[in-house]
Design a protein that fits this description.
The complex is a heterodimer of chains A (294) and B (687).
Chain A (H helix, E strand, L loop, with lengths): L11 H8 L2 H20 L1 H12 L9 H32 L3 H7 L5 E4 L1 H9 L3 H7 L2 H8 L6 E6 L5 E6 L5 E7 L12 E3 L14 E3 H9 L3 H7 L4 H5 L3 E12 L2 E10 L2 E10 H15 L1
Antiparallel strand pairs in A: 1-2, 2-3, 3-4, 5-9, 6-7, 7-8, 8-9
Chain B lengths: L2 H37 L16 E4 L5 E5 L12 H11 L11 H13 L10 H10 L6 H17 L2 H11 L1 E3 L2 E2 L1 H9 L8 H9 L13 H18 L4 H8 L17 H14 L1 H6 L3 E4 L3 H22 L10 E8 L5 E5 L17 E2 L5 H11 L7 E4 L4 E3 L2 E4 L10 E4 H6 L3 H11 L1 H11 L17 E2 L1 H12 L3 E2 L5 E5 L5 E4 L5 E2 L3 H16 L5 H4 L7 E6 L5 E7 L3 E8 L16 H4 L1 H11 L14 E7 L9 H10 L5 E7 L7 H6 L3 H6 L1
Parallel strand pairs in B: 1-5
Antiparallel strand pairs in B: 1-2, 3-4, 5-15, 6-7, 6-20, 8-13, 9-12, 10-11, 14-17, 15-16, 18-19, 19-20, 21-22
Helix pairs in contact in B: 2-8, 2-9, 4-5, 4-6, 8-9, 9-10, 13-22, 14-16, 14-17, 14-19, 17-18
The chains are: A alpha+beta (294), B alpha+beta (687).
């Protein structure tokens, strides 16, 4: 048996009265109005759209199209890096006052165009020996005056050397020169006085140590010009205290020089003076020394 | 009477429960919006900003633009045919100008169908929603993704005008075949601008975005037409076209453009070039960087190459008696290299790019056959002191191989012809003589020569290398023969002259480096012998086909007729042509005989070179100063003009075959006395 609450309407009229009460009608009108106004004016969408637009700047740049945009910006960055590097190389090359500076300024994989006047300036500054080794001046003169020569293209190599291409207008290489950084470096040690040591302590002099008498005899067999040319600064030999007892010739050439060691005996101590000897003269000296041994 | 209160009570309960539920749902939805909003993608301003990608352009050496990569050219609405705008709106979202990003009734209907009718899914996305999905979201199917897409579309509607939305939509939408945006689609499918689309074309294009693969007109033309008709009906229903127009257009079938059958490059050369660019700069720079690339290709030569390959393969099909319905057909590849620089001027990698993108000109490694003999003869001249007039007997040979059966190569004709000079041996492509020579030089020396000339593939250290049993590519052959053409000066083959950034600043340029790798005089002797191949020997079909300019070359046919080659050159252009099947089939004519390089590849070469050099002057190979010419008997090698041999020669053989040979100063042709003194004239020569 169904229970009827005391507050429930007992008649149909009462039911209708309650159904169409002001409260109910208000709720229905508001609900229907809400739905219809939304369908008519899209205010819900507008509201959400406005809200989202207000948060737009704080939201992440993600999604397909932003990824494409990212790719474009990455491509631009990569290209900018290439161009920046290129411009920096060009600046370095234009600033270079020697080939040595040029080799330091053009890294592996980088390249630069050098005008012929600049190349000439750098070439003129080279010591004769190095210049000749790079390209004989007559040949360079011929090249620079060749009407086919369009430009000088310089490319950095993995081993820190440079390739210099003399190109015609069609990029055809008229002449290629390999330029090694070591060609322009002065010998590592230069003039150096090492106290409390002997020539035997230097591995590089092994089997090439001669008594002072034999060494100077072979040296005096050289022509006068060559004796003067043997070491860069001969006066330094006289400045050291003691007597030269032995001399040694290094087993390696660097940038047109070979190290020569002079062993001084001063009181009970031996000291070694290392100087740079010009390669071509030293080779002649070695021949003289070999001759004196026989 | 008792029933009525129950109904009323239930109604009341449902009404208030519904109100409560709706309120809860609205609250939940609001919360969800706030939560999702933080993670929604940012909308670019203006919307078209990130749709545009700078275009990378590749130009031919002569300046014509070959292709544009990565570009998404955004065209304004007023440059799009109204037919297309009407069609796309009719079929995708005819209430576009009325809704605010969401078509609520359609959404409710779709929701009802999706939820109530299992297995059926109804789409209700508006153009704005589609734009939102295409711009920011993946194609993952989830309710959350759909909700986020809806939110973004609401923001798009608030932030942009309807025209801005439509503009962005038609410029980024996918039409299939790799096309994105109406302008590109219009150009690819109909070869015209989007502003010129007819109603038939526009309605066909408007039907594609629903399923670009299924309705791809290149693959499923009839399906695409059915879909177009649906679009037309829809247009008629909403009143943008009349019934009469609809019926008239439904009778027509738009003609598709075949020039760019899809977004692929359509070019073996460009594929290889783009691959090289990507390796050098990465995909981002190539497809999104807007670089300008100047390629080496010559469009005139490339057209000639395509045409020659096409005609050559038609001839080959006929020769083989292939029927129209046979799908497996022989392939061909051609590469032409500028001998003065190494620049690749033309490249065709197969019969039809759209059926097979495999580039046989670069990646196809096939046995070169007798095409390798020039390297052998050069080696023999340098290492064994032989020359073109040296005589060797063509006879059956058996060369012992350690741990393997003896090598007994046969001539192509299976016959032997006795003694002959080496120039004739190369002209007639005598295998037994090549075998005798390689036995003396050793295969290593031949390999070394080939490598010096520019062959990069791994070559097998076996005697048969002399007969070209190691696979090489047409590009390698063209490049290596270019070294011969240039009297032993080698250039690396290349495809790119210059690369510039979007502002025209050079980021790469090719420097032509030359390397003298072969002796010029000896190389000239080889050239002279190879000229004879074209004038008198296995490549004589070239002269018969009307190519009269000075040229040298060599045919190549593998034993089993798997490969037929001709590689040859003039002083300025070296071209290699390969023909054969990709696998499993041989080049056999309809009578059952094998097809040689002279018949399959040489005619293609002749046609191409004829077209390529049509406007160039006749130019012969320069003769090195230490070369002189002697006329000799091809059998004995006797100098027929020397005083010593005049009498005896006339007595010996009045019918003799005479060859003019190129000798270096210090080399002399055989004389009858020498023959008398040496029982075997070869011994004197070879020592």
């Amino acid at each position: 048996m169904m229970m009827i609450h005391w507050y429930e309407p007992s008649t149909l009229t009462e039911w209708f009265k309650r159904m169409f009460s002001i409260l109910n009608l208000t709720i229905i009108i508001i609900t229907v109005g809400f739905v219809f106004s939304e369908f008519r004016y899209n205010w819900c969408e507008n509201l959400m759209g406005v809200y989202l637009a207000s948060t737009n700047n704080s939201r992440p740049e993600k999604g397909t199209i932003w990824e494409t945009g990212d790719k474009t910006s990455k491509a631009n960055t990569h290209l900018k890096e290439i161009i920046d590097k290129q411009q920096s190389t060009t600046r370095n090359a234009l600033k270079a006052s020697s080939f040595l500076e040029l080799t330091s300024g053009v890294n592996p994989g980088e390249w630069v165009n050098l005008d012929r006047e600049h190349f000439k300036k750098l070439y003129i500054k080279l010591p004769d020996y190095t210049a000749d080794k790079l390209i004989p001046s007559a040949k360079l003169l011929f090249l620079l005056n060749n009407p086919d020569l369009d430009r000088i293209f310089i490319e950095g190599q993995e081993d820190k050397s440079l390739k210099i291409f003399f190109l015609n207008a069609n990029n055809l290489v008229l002449k290629k020169i390999d330029l090694n950084k070591e060609m322009f470096e002065t010998p590592e040690i230069g003039t150096q006085f090492v106290m409390g040591t002997s020539l035997d302590d230097f591995e590089g002099f092994k089997d090439r140590i001669y008594p002072a008498g034999q060494f100077f005899k072979a040296m005096t067999d050289l022509s006068f010009d060559k004796i003067n040319d043997l070491v860069e600064d001969p006066d330094i030999l006289l400045e050291k205290n003691g007597r030269i007892i032995r001399a040694g010739i290094w087993n390696e050439t660097k940038a047109g020089y070979i190290k020569i060691g002079f062993e001084y005996k001063y009181k009970s101590q031996t000291n070694v003076l290392l100087v740079n000897g010009r390669e071509l003269v030293v080779w002649e000296l070695i021949i003289n020394l070999k001759g004196s041994n026989q | 009477m008792k029933l009525f209160p129950v109904v009323l009570k239930t109604t009341r309960f449902l009404f208030y429960s519904g109100l409560l539920l709706t309120a809860c749902a609205a609250l939940g939805l609001t919360l969800l919006i706030f939560i999702c909003a933080k993670d929604l993608p940012k909308l670019p301003q203006p919307l078209s900003r990130i749709i545009e990608t700078p275009k990378t352009e590749i130009f031919a050496a002569s300046g014509q633009r070959l292709i544009t990569l990565g570009v998404r050219e955004s065209i304004p609405l007023n440059r799009v045919s109204q037919n297309f705008i009407n069609a796309i709106l009719a079929v995708e979202d005819h209430k576009f100008y009325e809704h605010h990003g969401i078509n609520k009734l359609r959404t409710l209907k779709a929701l009802y169908i999706t939820l109530i009718k299992p297995g059926k899914i109804q789409g209700a996305s508006t153009i704005t929603q589609q734009l939102s999905k295409n711009l920011f979201f993946s194609f993952e199917k989830s309710y959350l993704r759909k909700f986020k897409e809806l939110l973004v579309s609401l923001q798009i509607e608030t932030s942009c005008s309807k025209d801005e939305i439509l503009h962005a939509y038609i410029n980024q939408i996918h039409f299939g075949a790799g096309t994105q945006g109406i302008e590109k689609a219009s150009r690819v499918f109909f070869g015209k601008s989007a502003s010129d689309l007819s109603l038939s074309e526009a309605s066909l294009l408007a039907g594609l975005p629903k399923s670009p693969t299924e309705y791809n007109p290149y693959k499923n033309y009839d399906k695409a037409i059915k879909r177009r008709n649906i679009v037309l009906k829809r247009m008629a229903t909403i009143g943008v076209i009349s019934e009469l127009q609809k019926n008239a257009v439904m009778e027509t079938k738009p003609e598709l453009s075949r020039e760019f059958a899809d977004s692929r490059t359509g070019s073996y050369f460009l594929d290889t070039l783009i691959k090289e660019l990507v390796e050098r700069y990465g995909e981002e720079v190539v497809y999104h960087g807007g670089i300008k690339v100047t390629a080496t290709i010559d469009t005139g030569l490339q057209d000639a190459a395509k045409e020659s390959i096409k005609n050559g393969l038609v001839r080959l099909d006929e020769l083989m008696g292939l029927k129209a319905d046979e799908t497996i057909r022989p392939q061909a590849a051609l590469v032409a290299v500028d001998t003065n620089s190494g620049a690749i001027k033309a490249m065709v990698g197969g019969r039809d790019y759209y059926k097979s993108e495999y580039n046989r000109a670069v990646s196809g490694k096939r046995q070169a056959g007798s095409g390798f003999k020039p390297f052998l003869y050069y080696t023999a001249f340098e290492k064994l002191n032989m020359h073109p007039g040296t005589t060797i007997t063509d006879m059956p040979v058996s060369i012992p191989i350690k741990g393997a059966p003896d090598w007994e190569p046969l001539n192509f004709s299976k016959k032997n012809f006795g003694g002959m000079i080496l120039k004739k041996a190369l002209t007639k492509s005598i295998n037994t003589i090549a075998a005798q020579i390689v036995e003396q030089t050793g295969p290593e020396a031949v390999i070394e020569t080939a490598k010096m000339c520019g062959i990069k593939s791994k070559l097998h250290n076996v005697y048969s290398i002399a007969l070209g049993t190691s696979p090489v590519s047409p590009l390698e052959m063209a490049s290596a023969f270019a070294t011969l053409a240039k009297e032993g000066i080698r250039h690396e083959p290349f495809m790119i002259w210059r690369v510039e950034d979007p502002f025209g600043r050079v980021i790469h340029e090719h420097i032509i480096q030359e390397k003298q790798v072969l002796d010029p005089a000896t190389t000239y002797q080889i050239i002279d012998m190879m000229k004879s191949v074209i004038d008198l020997g296995s490549g004589s079909s070239i002269r018969k086909l009307g190519f009269k300019k000075p040229a040298a070359g060599k045919t190549g046919t593998t034993d089993s007729y798997n490969d037929a080659w001709f590689t040859g050159f003039t002083p300025d252009l070296s071209t290699s042509v390969w023909t054969g099947f990709d696998k499993g089939k041989k080049l056999i004519n309809k009578n059952g005989g094998g097809i040689t390089g002279g018949r399959a590849a040489a005619p293609i070469w002749a046609e191409f070179m004829g077209k390529a050099l049509k406007n160039s002057h006749k130019k012969d190979f320069p003769i090195p100063k230490d070369i002189y010419f002697v006329r000799v008997d091809a059998t004995t090698g006797f100098d027929i003009e020397s005083k010593e041999s005049q009498n005896s020669f006339n007595e010996i053989n009045k019918e003799a075959e005479i060859y003019t040979i190129a000798l270096k100063k210090g080399q002399v042709a055989n004389l009858p006395e020498q023959n008398i003194q040496n029982e075997n004239p070869n011994e004197g020569e070879e020592n």
